[in-house]
Amino acid sequence: MTDLKRLPGAFDHHWNWQLAAACRAVDTGLFFHPFGERGQAHDDREEEAKKICRGCPVRAQCLRHALEVREPYGVWGGLSEGERAELLDRARAARAA
């Protein structure tokens, strides 16, 4: 579950980046896997989502948001939930070292 304490609040300037997101014109189902999706179907859908992210003008802001609030599901900023978890784990390990 998203940690709501990490959200910056309801001020528009915190969220305006979303208005320029490439995904706004795409079915959100592309970015979040349906229950039971596995294998090639999962990989193909995720790759399609990441293709949209690659051309997105606000990709960095999206990824920053997902990392800050620990978005648990979906493709955000071009990374899957597993890729984001790995990135956070590496950052945590680097801080501990």
TrEMBL record:
Where is this protein localized, as stated in its record? Cytoplasm
Post-translational modification note: Upon Fe-S cluster removal intramolecular disulfide bonds are formed. The Fe-S cluster can be nitrosylated by nitric oxide (NO).
Binding positions for [4Fe-4S] cluster per the UniProt entry: C23, C53, C56, C62
Q: What is its main location?
A: cytoplasm
Keyword annotations: 4Fe-4S, Cytoplasm, Disulfide bond, DNA-binding, Iron, Iron-sulfur, Metal-binding, Transcription, Transcription regulation
Boundaries of every 4Fe-4S Wbl-type domain copy: 22-86
What does the record's cofactor remark say about binding? Binds 1 [4Fe-4S] cluster per subunit. Following nitrosylation of the [4Fe-4S] cluster binds 1 [4Fe-8(NO)] cluster per subunit.
* Necessary cofactors: [4Fe-4S] cluster
Q: Name one Pfam family in it.
A: Whib
UniProt cross-references to HAMAP family, sorted A to Z: WhiB (MF_01479)
Q: What does this protein do?
A: Acts as a transcriptional regulator. Probably redox-responsive. The apo- but not holo-form probably binds DNA.
Q: Which family does it belong to?
A: Belongs to the WhiB family.
- Protein's name according to its UniProt entry: Transcriptional regulator WhiB
Q: Which organism is it from?
A: Kitasatospora herbaricolor
Give the gene name.
whiB
